[in-house]
Specification:
Low-confidence stretches: 1-33, 91-103
CATH superfamily of the largest domain: P-loop containing nucleotide triphosphate hydrolases
CATH class of the largest domain: Alpha Beta
Helix content: 10-25%
Mean pLDDT: 82
Number of strands: 25
Structural class: alpha+beta
Number of domains: 3
Number of helices: 9
Shape: globular
Radius of gyration: 24 Å
Length: about 450
């Protein structure tokens, strides 16, 4: 672990050496056995998301000397009084100049206990769509709140999106406690307000934590300034929080991406179906069903390259060989015959609108679901959701950028889908503008 830098001035911060960092990370088998946690930080602008990640990386000795020197130089050019650790994640020039996060910044680091992929998402309202991108695969959402201002609309917006996207763990990190005199009563009041709002949301696990990302209090090391807080530090929490098993043995879903027919001397009669398994677990010898034809067959072999495997699990790419010669094309799906997905071309979904041009009812769009492409129309906007109080506006006839609503869709081809709460991989889709080819909406099937 890092030495305690909480009280050191910026000029005395010491980076990890490349040799010590490499020795910690690359421990072959012991390293590979550690679990992976995907987490994102979200909240309003200037709540300290990037600073928290920068402090975490620094104090856990997870950055190299040249990285810290680059940040130190950028801090001097900006006129900052101390090394601005937020710049470790704000990689775009516009971000560093403005001191904000615009795009989703991904960072990887590890400790002896666990590996992490961190998505640092932007706080401005106009970049809410970027938060949805970062949240789509997260196991933990860290919602930061500025202790001086408490719960605000953007806090509620990100909390609702975390609920909508079924992120299983929520950590509400009340930051900048140093600016409110380390007050327990301020922390307690913010916790009460958030809990009241969250009663209407679907959270499995919500925890609360006070900290100061700028000074390092309760980030890697427990804070001496908040003896009233008896919980773990931020690092200890993310090392120990439970992560749901990604393996879903009830929804075997293999969207077909490509048909492999090498027609070579080595593989004269080979026919394989390539793709990335989206959910479940498929083994050689399993009985499967191919949609849309509903033909059943048996998986004879599973390949990754020229290596034969006994089973494949998400998110492994693989090629399946089947016992029978079945007409299969890109966009078809190989599934568990005892628990197949729904098949249909009309369904309802919650959608986050991600384009400057408003969503229009009856307009034709393209839709991408797993490996299947189709055209679609929005038949009806059931209601637009007001994030501030979760009220439903049934009179709305369009969705603007970053707005959320429940819609009814009809597609030109049948989709093989599950409800999003049952299976993320086959319960989600994107809507594409046919004229610009831009992604304009992200949907979760209800």
């Amino acid at each position: 672990m890092a030495t305690d830098t909480d009280t050191k001035p910026a000029s005395e911060l010491e980076p990890a050496s490349e040799s010590s960092r490499a020795a910690e990370v690359y421990e072959t088998e012991a390293y590979l056995r550690r679990g992976l946690l995907r987490l994102l930080t979200c909240g309003s602008v200037d709540d300290g998301k990037s600073t928290l990640i920068g402090r975490l990386l620094h104090d856990s000795k997870s950055i190299f000397e040249d990285q810290l020197e680059a940040v130190r130089g950028a801090s001097i050019r900006r006129g900052d009084e101390r090394v601005n650790l937020a710049l470790l994640t704000d990689g775009l020039r516009a971000e560093r100049e403005q001191g904000i996060t615009i795009d989703v910044a991904y960072r990887f680091f590890s400790t002896p206990r666990r590996k992490f992929i961190i998505a640092d998402t932007p706080g401005h309202v106009q970049y809410t769509r970027n938060m949805v991108t970062g949240a789509s695969t997260a196991n933990l959402a860290v919602i930061l709140i500025d202790a001086r201002v408490g719960v605000i609309e953007q806090t509620r917006r990100h909390a609702f999106l975390a609920s909508l996207l079924r992120i299983p763990n929520i950590l509400v990190a009340v930051n900048k406690m140093d600016l409110v005199g380390w007050s327990e009563s301020v922390f307690t009041e913010i916790k009460r307000v958030f809990e009241t709002f969250a009663e209407a949301l679907s959270f499995d696990n919500v925890e609360f934590m006070p900290l100061s990302a700028l000074l390092g209090d309760n980030v890697v090391h427990p804070s001496k300034n908040m003896p009233w807080h008896e919980g773990p530090s931020f690092l200890r929490y993310i090392e120990e929080v439970g992560v749901p098993d990604d393996l879903d043995d009830h929804h075997d879903r293999f969207p077909v991406q490509w048909i492999i027919r090498p027609q070579s001397a080595q593989w004269p009669d080979f026919r394989g179906y390539a793709g990335t398994i989206a959910s479940g677990r498929i083994r050689a010898g399993d009985r499967v069903r191919v949609l849309p034809g509903n033909r059943e067959t048996t998986v004879t072999n599973i390949w990754i390259g020229e290596e034969k495997l006994e089973e494949v699990v998400p998110p492994m790419p693989a090629t399946l060989e089947l016992a029978d010669d079945i007409d299969i094309s890109r966009g078809d799906m190989i599934v568990d015959p005892n628990n197949p997905p729904r098949v249909g071309n009309e369904f309802e979904a919650m959608v986050v609108w991600m384009a400057e041009e408003p969503m229009r009812v009856r307009k034709k769009y393209s839709l991408k679901h797993a490996t299947r492409d189709a055209r679609c129309i929005v038949k009806e906007l059931r209601y637009r959701l007001d994030i501030s109080d979760l009220s439903q506006d049934a009179s709305a006839n369009s969705l603007e950028l970053n707005q959320i609503g429940r819609i009814s869709l009809k597609t030109t081809k049948p989709l093989f889908y599950d409800r999003y709460e049952e299976c993320r991989a086959t319960g989600s889709f994107i809507i594409i503008d046919e004229a610009t080819n831009n992604t304009v909406g992200a949907g979760m099937i209800l």
